[in-house]
Amino acid sequence: MSDCLFCKILDGDIPADIVFESDTAMAFRDINPQAPTHVLIIPRQHISTINDISAADQSLVGSLFTAAREIAAKEGLSDDGYRVVMNCNEAAGQTVFHIHLHLLGGRSFDWPPG
Ligand code: 5GP
Ligand code: ZN
Question: What is the CATH number of domain 5-105?
Fold first, then answer.
């Protein structure tokens, strides 16, 4: 999608601090980190929200979680723990409409979230 910020990052048109790449996914550090580690994991395929995920995307979406596991291990977060979140639409706080997992770690997190 030409007007999508994360598609522009995927195309290299906007720079990002990339920490992971695979055939199906890519991950980079959040520009406004909310924790010592705050990485965004996105599919290479443009999907706007969780509402737009189809059954055919199951393996693609699953690959975001295996990426999260790998990145968390690389960042030294596996044992202490970390949080993985995907927001859907405005009420949940989604601001970029290309699905992404937030991988947050390096501090403690409250539950329930605000
Ligand atoms: P959302 O609010 O949609 O769940 O998350 C969007 C995230 O993208 C936010 O945490 C925001 O800080 C991050 N973000 C917005 N613009 C950019 C950018 O240009 N580069 C990077 N690396 N992150 C961005
Ligand atoms: Zn996109």
Answer: 3.30.428.10
pTM of the full structure? 0.98
The residue to mutate among 30, 39, 89, having the most atoms of ligand 1 within 8 angstroms of its beta carbon, is 30
Task: Using alpha carbons, list the distances in angstroms from residue 99 to 79, 81, 111.
Answer: 27, 23, 23
Residue 114: pLDDT band with limits 50, 70, 90 = confident
* Residue 98 token pair: 């290309």
pLDDT digits (tens, 9 = 90+) for 75-86: 999 999 999 999
| Residue 90, ligand 1, Cβ within 6 A | no
Q: Whose CA is nearest to atom 19 of ligand 1?
A: 31
Domain spans of the chain?
5-105
Please check whether residue 103 is in contact with residue 84, taking contact to mean a CB–CB distance below 8 angstroms: yes
